[in-house]
Amino acid sequence: MPRWLPALLLATALPLPAATLPLQAAESKVTYGPELERFNYAYPVGHFSFESQGKHMHMAYIDVKPTKPNGRAVVLLHGKNFCAGTWEGTIAALSGAGYRVIAPDQIGFCKSTKPEHYQYSFEQLASNTHALLQKLKLNKFTLLGHSTGGMLASRYALMYPQQVEQLVLVNPIGLEDWRALGVPYRTPDQWYERELKTSADSIRKYEQATYYAGQWKPEYDKWVNMLAGLYNGSGHERVAWNSALQYDMIFTQPVVQDFARLQAPTLLLIGTQDNTAIGKDIAPPELRDKLGNYAELGKRTAQAIPHATLVEFDKLGHAPQIQDPQTFHAALLKGLADLPH
Q1: For residues 28-48, b (16+ Cβ closer than 10 Å) or e, as one string?
Q2: Cα separations in angstroms, 19 against 30, 42, 221
Q3: Is the dihedral of CA 273, 277, 283, 287 positive or negative?
Q4: Domain for residue 11, yes or no?
Q5: Edge-to-edge strand order for the sheet containing 164-170?
Q6: Domain for residue 1, yes or no?
Q7: CATH number for the domain including 159?
Q8: What percent of the chain clears pLDDT 90, i.e. is strictly above it?
Q9: What is the pTM of this model?
Q10: Mean pLDDT of all residues in the chain?
Q11: What is the C-alpha R_g of the chain?
């Protein structure tokens, strides 16, 4: 039995609601459970049950049908430190414009199963997502991926090109191969030890520096505490272990070398103040400042992907859809209308 498994069996007392606690107390005490059991998304959540790698799994997902449908659908793929629920503003904008919107939580993330053992690959996550969409009888759609979800969306579009009529990549990571550039390798055990130290404070400091271009608004704390709540209380060790395996997947399975093979017309939405790069904290000093330069990486990627359109947000960081939703959603809706489909 893994040394951390008994912790999963311990019952935890329900905490006071975060709103009733001072900020620092809330950060240290709020727990949402290893599948965000006590964190509510803005939209109803469904669950897709299936078998994967010999284990029973369930994927949580949001499926919003518009009041006035335009006959099109968009599938939203979240990033490493995001969830289906963090798409709430984008879901509202898209469904309001007539699109059906599906947003899954990938296996190992957020409200979905955290396996005890799992071989993570972008191909496996794409296959899981494909199975969900087949169950929902969705055969043609626009695929939108943010951050790590951009790596997954790229891999999905390569595996199932007949389904993806448009591809949208929002500040995707993996626009450079960090391993090939000389970033040192961390083992899953090293990532695990790092992830065990995750807290609301560490999440906030990281996001301030990358996601929001040094800016901060009180409403961002909702998403900080959502992530921190995964790491608090019973199940936090399994959450940390799955996160470690996911970081290993991201680092060792680049997609940048395959961009030239993408067939779908592609919209790149890039906040140029982003500087996200996996392993930057342990990269040699002479390399560190060169990594994650999205002002340059966006342009390079637009040249590498056939049929690509680049839209840049010069004042925004890694999460433009949260930092400036009005500007982002205007660009997204225009891009979806302009791209062939």
Answers
A1: eebbbbbbbeebebebebbeb
A2: 10, 17, 12
A3: negative
A4: no
A5: 46-52, 55-64, 100-104, 73-77, 141-146, 164-170, 266-271, 308-313
A6: no
A7: 3.40.50.1820
A8: 87
A9: 0.92
A10: 91
A11: 19
